[in-house]
Amino acid sequence: MLMRKTLNSLFTSYDLFDSLFSNTKQNNVLLMDTEGVILEINSAFSDVFGYADDDIVGRHFSMLFTEEDQLKQLPQKELNNVLEKGQCNDNNYLVNKHGIKRWVSGESILITNKESKHLILKVIQDIHLQKTYEHSLEQLHDFNERIISTIDDIVFVVNDEMRIIKANKSFHQLFGEIDNENVDFNDIVKQLDNGDELKNQMQQALRSDAGFINKETQVITRAGEKKIFDVSCRRLEEKDNKRDLLFIMHDITMVREDERRREDIIGFVAHELRNPLANLVLCNELLSETLKDNDIKESLEFVTRSKNNIMRLNKMIAELYDATKAGSGNLQIEKQLFNFDAMIFEAIETIKVLQPKYEIKVRGSANIEVYADRYRLIQVVTNYLSNGIKYSNGSAEVELIVEHNDKIVTVAVKDKGLGIAKENLPYIFNRFFRAEKTKNVEGIGLGLFLCRQIIQAHNGNVWVESDEGKGSIFYFSIPV
Fold first, then answer.
1. Cα separations (Å) of 58 from 31, 39, 71, 111, 189?
2. For residue 196, which of 209, 186, 208 has the smallest C-alpha distance?
3. pLDDT at 336
4. How far apart are CA 118 and CA 110, in angstroms?
5. Distance (Å) of CA 439 to CA 346, 443, 452, 472, 480
6. What is the mean pLDDT of the chain?
7. Rounded to an integer, what distance in angstroms lies between the CA atom of residue 447 and that of residue 379?
8. SS3 284
9. What would the pLDDT profile of 60-91 be if each residue is shown by its tens digit?
10. At what angle do helices 374-390 and 447-457 cross, to 10 degrees?
11. Whole-number Å distance between alpha carbons of 248 and 255
12. Of 40-54, 262-276, 440-454, where does mean pLDDT reach its minimum?
């Protein structure tokens, strides 16, 4: 009772309402009757919302609400709550004199004077700037989340107990879905981490204050596939004494595979080029000796061997050059009309000059005009025939079959040689592919790759049938 008397004494000593209404700068105040008609506004309200007394006094306070909120009957609901409960909180947009929305927060209070007359005091705080900042932060957060979720790199955050705090879509694709946050990373990675490399790197980063960059780590996927990642880690800014680590794993498996293939190819090509070059050097040395001895017959034999080795070198270099152009999509095709049978027999004569001991049997014909690149098709036919002879395994016979109809012409080269293992058939037209049992046979594995590129440039097809140890049939077809 004494406390209440003291407060009443204070209220009568100070005009608290007048002070609140007239002197505040942050609190925008409206005084309304119980119908919602505005009776008075303070200067703070005028400063923020731009209304003068003549603009607003005597009008219903619903004019301050947006059209959407008016349709939702928010002004009337606010009045009802105040009259029923004596108080109502609000957090919504209000509209200033120029029609611009501002986010506000406030409270409406039912007050009574000494004559028991009821009025409503509406105290408003302008929080538009704060809400704008919050919205911008939310947008930035959403934007960052969208970036992280869509990038191919694996991104995840762990705390100092190695528990997953956050992980993106790529993480789940590699390590599996996480049902809930705060999962122990050790439980997720233990089946995939090759030699605990990733685990050890993470623990080392947790023990030290610094992260690391560009550490290669091998992970074995759930499908048993080996993946190589470039892993980087940085410590996030400490908050509430938490020491979270951000990890980014970039898949460099294909990069390392390409590097390995390039090294293999360089070594392989260098080895293949070295053989004819060494033979050429040896032939020239022996040729010098025979010329000194005036041995014309043996000299001519060495000249022939030198020519053959030069032809081998030229063929390898031409294949490398064409394969480079084909791989970059720049293989030139120059089409013209020509007789298909004439092209076939020119290719056969080319092989007979180089391989006179072998018999090439021809079955069928295509005495028709085709529109194609004659030189490139000769290249395909001679390659098929050369391979049939090269892998003949002692057989001196190769068969060439030609068929055609109104739409396509088909060529097949059949040999009785080594044949191709079933598991190698899907790769036989790939660049630099060599079956294990043919690696001691001359060649760099580009001929069939070029054949496929040439025929595909003609909108045609290549394929092969083979029984290991019984021989092979290589086909190509092009539109007439």
1. 11, 6, 22, 19, 71
2. 186
3. 92
4. 7
5. 30, 8, 21, 17, 37
6. 79
7. 9
8. helix
9. 999 999 888 999 899 999 999 999 999 988 88
10. 150
11. 17
12. 262-276
